[in-house]
Amino acid sequence: MMNLLRSLFVLAILALSLAADGDAAAQASTRPYRIYAITFRGMTDIERGFTEYFATRRIPVQITWRDLNRDPARMPGFIDEIRATRPDLVYTWGTSVTLGVVGTWDANDAGKYITDIPVVFTLVAAPVLAKIVPDLKSSRRNVTGVYHVAPTEAQIRAMASYRPFKSIGILYTPTEQNSVVVVDEVREVSRRLGFSVIAKPLKLDANKKVTAEGAPEMIRELKAQKVDWLYLPPDSYLGTQAKGVIIPAAMENRLPTFASTEQLMETGALTGLVSRYHSIGQFTAYKAEQILVQKVAPQKIPIETLTRFSLQVRMDVAEALALPPPLPMFNYAELITAPKPAQ
Amino acid sequence: MGTIRVRFILVALVVSFFAVGMAAFLNYFKYKSTIGNIVKSRVLVVGRGIENSIQASMQLGMQFSELSQLAQMMQREKSSDRLVRGIDVFDYSGQVIYSTDRARVGQKVAASWTQAAERSKTTEWTTEATDEFVAGISLRNAFDLTVGFLALRYSRDEVELAAAKAGREILLAAIGSFLGIAIVAPLALIIVIRRFEHDLHALEAAATHLEDRTESTLVTTSAFDTSIGHLRASLRDANKSLDDMRAKLDSAG
Amino acid sequence: MLEKNYLWRIYWRLAGVIMVCVVIALAVVSFFSHRVFDRELVPEVEQKAATVANSVRALLLKATSYGVPFDKLYGVEQTFGEVFEENPEFSYAAVTDLDGNLLFARGKEPQGVRDFFRQPAIIAVGLDPTATWTPSHTGQQYFVSMPIASDKPLGMLHIGIDGKFVDNILLEVMLDVVVVLVVSLFFTLELLNFMAGARLASGLGEFAQQVERMRAGDFTATARIRANDEIGRLLRRIDAAIDHLNVRYEFLVGELEDKMRTATGPRREALRPAMNVLENIRSRLRFGSAPKEAEGDEMNLNRIRAPLFAFILAEEMTRSYLPTYVNQLLVPLWGISPQVVIGLPIMLFMLIVALGQPYLGSWSERVGRRRAMLIGASIATVGFAATALAINLYDLLLWRSLCALGYAMVFVAAQGYVLDRTGQQNRAQGFALFIGAIMVATVCGPSIGGILADNIGFRLSFAVSAVMALTSLLAIARLPKVEVRTNTSQRPSRGPRMREILALLVNKRFMTLTGLAAVPAKVILTGVCFYLVPLYIVSIGNTSAMAGRLLMVYAVMMVLIVPLSASLSDASMRRDRYVSVGLIISGLSGLLLLISDSFLVLFGVVFLLGLGQALSIAAQSALVADHCQEEIRIYGHDAVYGVYRLLERLGNALGPLIASILVIFWGYQGAFIAISAMVLVCGIAFTIATRGLDWQPQPAT
User: Fold this and answer.
1) pLDDT band at residue A23, thresholds of 50, 70 and 90?
2) Nearest CA-CA partner of A162 in A223, A231, A261
3) Which residue is closest to A335 within chain C, CA to CA?
């Protein structure tokens, strides 16, 4: 009896799997999905992860690559091309490309932006702040995507697992809203986890333009105020000054630095919790798959970031500061020994 | 006098058989699951080492299907523990991508493997094949999508031989103590039963003398004294009435 | 009755002696098991420690390969902490340098361990490049030591195994052994009653009856076949005495009549005193043969207990793990949350029992109680066996329906069997026997079932239930084939009519009791005990055996408190108070989870729930008669009670549904709290609704 049931069961499974194989074959014979992709500064690892994902899932896609090359003037041409070719999906890289294609959620004139074709964005640091979406749960329009900054609390916890701390220092650009928001978030986390935060805004010059002048002194002051870490928020201006001014000053004061983005990490910070571009690209492709293959409406797909980030540690810096990573970290951290080439 | 005594002793034997049997059963299965878990977690320690290196490679942007160093590493890990019979890495469809056993590459694993992995609430899962156990780890990528599975096949014998050996000893202990009880319990019970039988005896003795006109010579202190008294009184009363009638009849001639 | 209490005293003494023997035997088994565990497990754990040490060593070497000096490593203790977390049997870990000096360590440091690390034999392992690992032990602590070497020796890694880890493992077994003890106690009493007691009790009962009869002057002879045991012989002696009396009487009467026939005049006068004595005897005493009674009713009544117990036990065994089993066989049903689907088999079961009972009553009357029970037990046996083999949820639902149908048949037929064999005066006693069997089954079933499920798996446990049901089938087959009809017994043999149901559903008084007390009590019972407890316990990583222990706590409370509260509430006649207090205690039970989510709190939850239910359950149904006299007058006793039972049982079916929906929204803890809060509100509402009522208490029916 049992055996008979078992064999019936196996037969049923076989039948099902045959049917499934048939489906895949049928799918392969249909025309590939057409994706129109706009990058900001040429190809990165994100695009590699994006295309590889489709290959491993055996999803046929035909991608038209376009590069803005940091020139907003090219955007109208791309928009026209999208309207003319009507791809199945549009892929946008970074905040400015995304805003150029879809506009903000409260001002997306159908004449100027793409509204009737699903758009998947990637590598937008703060989609809500940039007004691309009103809420991470849903864009409430034909848009979804992936952001790449690790949650602030996750970053703080990563810092604490490297070396526990009582106090952290932050330098940030007061004119960059992105940065100000993160500093507020760090303060909020500090109240919950019980540590102190000393945040110093960079100075503004006579033209009210931010300047790195006086930054080394501020780092010295932070050290004197006994902070255990220097946290580098996702801050564009700070990113340009990190390698030349901030990191050397921190090293001079033997202050470990924690980077919130991969770019900051590349400037020579001790450690940081970053999203690997390759994984971001795969995740973006996964969202695209949901729209193209599973036919899920973009407004029903939440805007998310990775669940697992890469903890990077620069071993030469660790050695110079005599702060080796804790032993468990050797199991999961990405240990960088030589200066890394830019992605 | 036998039947009630036998029945009570029978109850004692049945209950102790149940209790001792259950205790032996519990100990045996506890042993089996403990040793199974010890062996499984030992195998998983090996597995987690492999998982770490797969994760590290994937984080560096390597494709799951092109981890060139993996096969070599798996071979090395397999040879480090004699218990491990083979290590397979298979994708979400169940197709083996890497294996310490080259012939398995490209084949599909049993559907029960992927089902076990899907059912598990954590990334670890276990299943059984005919002659081996399988301990597995689900491989998740950076956005929690399961991209594949790592499975370590290990010998059933290690666990089952050990369990059988312990089982025999526990069984012997159980049989021993059951026999012990079979000897002790009747003796202990007899103390209680004696009291009971004494009461019944008294009752029966009283009953045999029910029709004696004389008061029973037996001095009893049983629980039934009142009842026997009543019984005796009513019989005496009835007999007296009949005696009375007899006398009246006789006197009438 | 002196004799009944006497017998129970004997039982308890016997049970006490048996329990002492069992405890000693269990101690012996545990002692030997401990020895086996110790001897066999330590080498296995050492082997595992070596594997773990290997991976820790690999990590240490990876760190040094990145240029971190061996003695400047950071967070080694953290790694050890992670190791302990995953392997609770390891209690200490250390890294030493080549001279055996402690560099890093974590865990409770065993005495003298520093000296131990410096022993030449241990240090030699560190310097030996070919050494893999060495086991050793100091006192209670076992150690696995391993050299750490890259291109040159660096130091040593030691992992300490807690010598008491075997104790800890066996401590977990002890909990189950305690459960086995409790169950054994109940088994003992049940078996004493079954194997020896049924006869003894009826024998002694008959003896007592005989004494009473004779005291009342009844010396009629009963032509009964006496069993060949102590009591039987005793009764035969009494019979003989009575026969003797009867013969004497007959003879005297015959002689008197003879003489009267032939006598005339003065002779007749002389016989006058004898005549008077006879008159006197005739007025006080009765001789002759007794009217033939229904034979051995009391004894046959007792015989229902064993098969009923075995059958109910089969079902009760599944309580602690059924939802978890369903969870395993789950197939997504479109549009229904899996939480609700898990509750479906329980709901279906309760629904079939609720709706089937009224109709099965008259059916079992038609086909005969014994046959009805045989059919029911057979169906349930098939149901259990098929459940054990179930492929997925769909067929499982079918098999569980069979079990439900069988359960309802056996339950109703057994109830009928008791009704048939009891009159007004001993009906309560008959039902006490019936309920007693069920209660003992609820004590023993879930706990044993949970233990079985954990150890031999769900499917085999269902197979055990099937065997149990089969056993009950054999016991039922031994019941007397003759069906008995006592005309005095009024059987609630028809199902309530739709008209009556509708009329009562809108009746305020009836619904106050049913809707605010009876139904919520059942909802919380099935929702919490049959659905939430098994699932929650497993969801927090505990076992089905633990769920079984929890359910046992509930059942033990019922067994202990119900008889007490029944007699108390009958005596005081303020049954509404008992219902109110019971409901409110039940309602407070789940709120305990607001304090903590530990499973220990769950013991408090089921304790309070058991207490609350036990307080209200007996008073509740008696209250229908008190509360709804008017309705009983209009619709009849049977109809009112029929509707009441129907609604109560629908509450049983509703429990898992409500609980599962609550789980979707608030999780397990939230569901516990919400369902209790609901009962609490009902309890308070019931208290307020019945506060001002004028009571006309009726004796319990």
Assistant:
1) very low
2) A231
3) C66
- In this complex, the residue of A45, A56, A283 whose CB is nearest that of residue B143 is A283
Task: Please tell me which chains touch B, using 3 or more CB pairs under 8 Å as the contact test.
Answer: A, C
- In chain A, which residues have their Cβ closer than 8 Å to the Cβ of B51? none
Average pLDDT of C536-563? Answer: 84
What are B106's two structure tokens?
A: 């490209």
Residues of A with Cβ-Cβ distance to B140 under 8 angstroms: 308
Chain C residues whose CB is inside 8 A of the B16 CB are: 18, 21-22, 25
Contact C44 B39 (CB under 8 A): yes
Contact B19 C180 (CB under 8 A): yes
Closest to B252 measured CA to CA, from C543, A49, C258: C258
B218 and B114 within one domain? no
CATH topology of domain C496-701: Growth Hormone; Chain: A; (1.20.1250)
Q: Which fold has domain C298-486?
A: Growth Hormone; Chain: A; (1.20.1250)
Whether B204 and C237 have beta carbons less than 8 Å apart is answered as yes
What value does the mean pLDDT take over residues C493-498?
Answer: 63
Q: Residue A22: in which H helix or E strand, if any?
A: helix A2-29
Residue type for position A255: L
pLDDT of residue A17: 42
Contacts of B65 in chain A (CB under 8 A): 56
Q: Do A327 and C391 touch (CB under 8 A)?
A: no
- Owning domain of residue B125: 3-162
For the record, the structure tokens of A154 come out as 């996750």
Residue-wise pLDDT tens digits, B223-235: 677 777 777 777 7
Query: Least CB-CB distance to C59: which of A323, A330, A335?
Result: A330
Rounded CA separation A118/A145 (Å): 10
Cβ within 8 Å, pair A327-C78: yes
Confidence of residue C64 (pLDDT cuts 50, 70, 90): very high
Determine the average pLDDT of the residues in C222-241: 72
Q: Using one digit for the tens of pLDDT, what is the confidence trace for C26-51?
A: 888 888 888 888 888 888 899 999 99
Asked if B66 has any chain A CB less than 8 Å from its own CB, the reply is no
- For residue A315, the chain C residue with the least C-alpha distance is C66
Facing residue for C26 by CB, picked from B19, B172, B242? B19
Please give the residue of chain B at the shortest CA–CA distance from A49.
Answer: B61
Q: State the Cα–Cα distance between residues C611 and C237, nearest whole angstrom.
A: 48
State pLDDT tens for residues C94-127. 999 988 899 999 998 888 888 888 888 888 877 7
Distance CA B216, CA B219 (A): 8
The nearest CA of chain A is from the CA of C78 a distance in Å of 7
* Identical topology for domains C41-168 and C496-701: no
Write the residue in C26, C259, C277 that is nearest to B20 by C-beta.
C26
Beta strands in chain A (DSSP E): 33-39, 61-67, 89-93, 119-124, 143-147, 167-172, 196-201, 203-204, 210-211, 229-232, 257-259, 271-274, 310-314, 334-336
Q: Where do the domains of chain C lie? A: 41-168, 219-289, 298-486, 496-701
Q: Nearest to residue A241, comparing CAs of A271, A206, A211?
A: A211
The pLDDT tens digits of the residues spanning B150-165 come to 999 998 888 888 889 9
Please name which of C107, C99, C97, C100 lies closest in space to residue C70, comparing C-alpha atoms.
Answer: C97
Of C184, C214, C451, the CB nearest to B15: C184
The CATH number covering residue B126 comes to: 3.30.450.20
Mean pLDDT of C465-489: 78
Q: How many domains does chain B contain in total?
A: 2
Query: What is the pTM for the complete model shown?
Result: 0.75
Which residues 6+ apart lie within 8 Å of A207 measured at CB? Answer: none
Helix C165-191 with C2-65: angle, nearest 10 deg: 160
Q: Which CATH architecture describes the domain C41-168? A: 2-Layer Sandwich (3.30)
Is there a contact between A304 and B63 if contact means CB atoms under 8 Å apart? no
